[in-house]
Amino acid sequence: MARLYMSRSTGDLIADRRYGYARSCFDAGDHAGAADVARAVLELAPGFAPAWSLLGEAEAALGNREAAIDALHKALEIEPEDVLGASITLARLGALPQAAALTNGYVRTLFDRYAGAFDAHLTGQLEYRAPAQIIDALDRLAPGRSFASCLDLGCGTGLMGAAIRERAAHLTGLDIAPAMVAKAAGKGIYDALAVAELTEYLAGQPEDSHDLILAADVMVYIGDPAQVLAGAARALRPEGLFVFSVQSGAEAMPEGFRIGADSRFAHEERFLRRRAEAAGFAITLCEPVATRRDGGAPVPGFLLALRR
User: Fold this and answer.
1) What phi and psi, each to the nearest 5 degrees, are found at residue 100?
2) Phi and psi angles of residue 65, each rounded to the nearest 5 degrees, phi first
3) H helix intervals, 116-217
4) Is 185 helix (H, G, I), strand (E, B) or coil?
């Protein structure tokens, strides 16, 4: 998914025009020009976080690590919620831990802006297949089984919910982005919907309250899944299932996960296995899949099914 760039004003018409030009330079691959014009913007509007973020991205593209880190930290100081995603590049540059790369503010804003085009983009351009792959896994692991209570983490507009609906007596969806939840509500798929950050939501669930928890292409926005796995184990009834997809990657991952060029986390299989077992799960399925395509090529990953 493309990085998020915000359309907003500095309050100064000349600065706004310069920022638009700097953005155009960057998009055209003229990173030196983008950096120069971004500095000109900041002379007029030194508190304009998007210009600091753009300057940092341009400096990073030019290989100027320290200058990039300095500019991106300034963007974070101005806007700690980081809807611009400065932390992503800082993590890639080694200036922040990998786990800090994606903030809730960035993910929420990204998907609120993406909600209107989400279904068409995923199912059309990206050939998104995670819901179908999860249903296929359930058909193999639990043929014919219906679930009294199913929880769809990161439900988005309801693509996973629609796929599981006929097998769930009660279906709850949650997502961090209000616009996504509004789209899902309009489809009439779910019995209940919530706008929530998933680790906090799971922590508040009663013990032994669900038979099935699903996370289709959601864990790619979470670095270390330990809290999610612990929360899911607590919320599942005995013999309950947690089925989810992740991305894998060719780069070294000393921490077991790494933020990628697509602003999503990739995970190592052995790391996921350790985390799942530590949470008390039995691993019933772990197989390679490609849930979507990017740039015409399949994005490698894994599909995991865990049993409490």
Assistant:
1) -90, 5
2) -60, -50
3) 118-120, 130-141, 159-164, 178-187, 198-203
4) helix
Between 261 and 125, residue with greater pLDDT: 261
Say if CB 275 and CB 302 are below 8 A apart: no
The domain locations on the chain are 13-96, 119-307
What are residue 103's phi and psi, to 5 degrees? Answer: -95, 160
What is d(CA 239, CA 282) in angstroms, rounded to the nearest whole number? Answer: 10
Q: 257: Cβ–Cβ under 8 A, 6 or more apart, which residues?
A: 98, 99, 223, 224, 265, 266, 267, 268, 271
Helix (H, G, I), strand (E, B) or coil at 168: strand
pTM of the full structure: 0.90
Q: Which CATH superfamily is domain 13-96 in?
A: Tetratricopeptide repeat domain (1.25.40.10)
Contact 41, 23 (CB under 8 A): no
- Among 291, 304, 130, CA closest to 232: 304
Taking only the tens place, the pLDDT of each residue in 56-79 is 999 999 999 999 999 999 999 999
CATH for the stretch 119-307: 3.40.50.150
One-letter amino acid at 215 equals A
- Nearest-angstrom CA–CA distance, 118 and 226: 28
List for the chain the helix, strand, coil content (%; round to 5).
50, 20, 30
| 3-state secondary structure labels for all residues of 205-255 | CCCCCEEEEEECCCHHHCCCCHHHHHHHHHHEEEEEEEEEEEECCCCCCCC
| Residues 231, 233, 237, 239, Cα dihedral to 10° | 160
Query: How many other CB atoms are found less than 10 A from the CB of residue 186?
Result: 10
